[in-house]
């Protein structure tokens, strides 16, 4: 069993209350470790350590920051397998396929790419009227609050651009999956100065450490990935101290399949676009609109492919899908599927399995207004909705308070681009779904949050701009 400690100011520490909470393997229900249950005083210590470290870290040259961040990226890569095993044990996703090893590959790739980015001074004007320079300056202490679906990769998305731009960090992982993040921060402290990155954990039961971070006067920015409801609370708390915010919130991504598609050829892409990480992905495809001329064929081939994907204990090498991560999410999926069974046609799955295992579920015959279509299920259940006119499909896809991602499936790329341009979301993919990459900004519209991550646009969100006129 892994009895983890927090890292504050470069030191391994327990909670000042000496309290801890259990972390369970969702595949087996077994306790795999414990994490400290931090107090507000622990958070104060972490923020103070980050503030102290900021004084020297923020003064490093761009080249020095790049070298230090590269060392951090190399440390993560060197411990990729160790962290992948921890992710599988606490999150449930399989080691193989699009699972923990894949997550660690993505984390390493994002870390390395971010190291190579830079925000140099820009000369806006240099003439007889004077010189105008635009400088990017680090904010200070960045607070990172991460979710349970990709505990290391999303942490890297938050942490690396913050460090690369000269900020220091206090990170709080989800109480469902704290162990891999605690270990990651412990490893980073082997190559980074003390206090540059700190980690606090809490069970979120009595007095949320996340809420305290959002309100803390010593934190200049919060970057949060999670639900819309929690994002709203973060925003409210952050307003009191005028914090900078990057909020990547829930999505209810729609895919639109145009009538010229080959149903068999797109079945695998449709499946993984929806069921990656067992559907527990903000930018997974959660609604699928299919033209009536190929609707039945798409359903047939999608179901056939889904039947070929093995589900089981994440530690089993043959597993490609694992359990739902926690009971609350499992119960939500079960509720939505039960409602969908009453209103539509169950094509696959639908019956909850043992423990937290829920089979890949596909339901036809639903429409906008049905719960499984309107609500973000964040689990292994996909509604397939028949449409006749593409304009109706676009309207239905846009009929959501969310606007994170979307996709269009077609052999005619030009037509697909035209449809994509009418979708109300931050990212649209053609003939794939959810394929984020580090050189392209990623963020949501409407209730899916604001601000962007990745690439230079994402880096800029960790800085204040200063214009110098001379």
List keywords for this structure.
single chain; 470 residues; alpha/beta; Aldehyde Dehydrogenase, Chain A, domain 1; Aldehyde Dehydrogenase, Chain A, domain 2; 7-stranded mixed sheet; 6-stranded mixed sheet; 37% helix
Describe this entry's structure for a reader.
The chain has helices spanning 40-57, 62-78, 80-91, 100-115, 153-164, 179-188, 209-215, 228-239, 263-275, 295-307, 327-343, 371-374, 390-398, 413-420, 455-460; strands spanning 2-3, 6-8, 11-13, 20-24, 31-36, 122-127, 130-138, 141-145, 168-172, 197-199, 221-225, 244-248, 253-257, 285-291, 345-348, 361-364, 381-387, 402-403, 405-409, 427-430, 445-446, 449-450, 463-469. With 470 residues, the protein is α/β, with parallel strands linked by helices. The chain folds into two domains: 2-249 and 448-469, Aldehyde Dehydrogenase, Chain A, domain 1, CATH 3.40.605; 253-437, Aldehyde Dehydrogenase, Chain A, domain 2, CATH 3.40.309.10. The strands form six sheets. The chain has a seven-stranded mixed sheet with strand order 15-16-17-14-13-19-20, with helices on both faces. Strands 10-9-8-11-12-22 form a six-stranded mixed sheet, sandwiched between helices. β2 and β3 form a beta hairpin. α2 (62-78) packs antiparallel against α4, α3 (80-91) crosses α4 and α3 packs antiparallel against α6. The mean pLDDT is 97. This is 4-(hydroxymethyl)benzenesulfonate dehydrogenase. Homodimer. It catalyses: 4-(hydroxymethyl)benzenesulfonate + NAD(+) = 4-formylbenzenesulfonate + NADH + H(+). Belongs to the aldehyde dehydrogenase family.
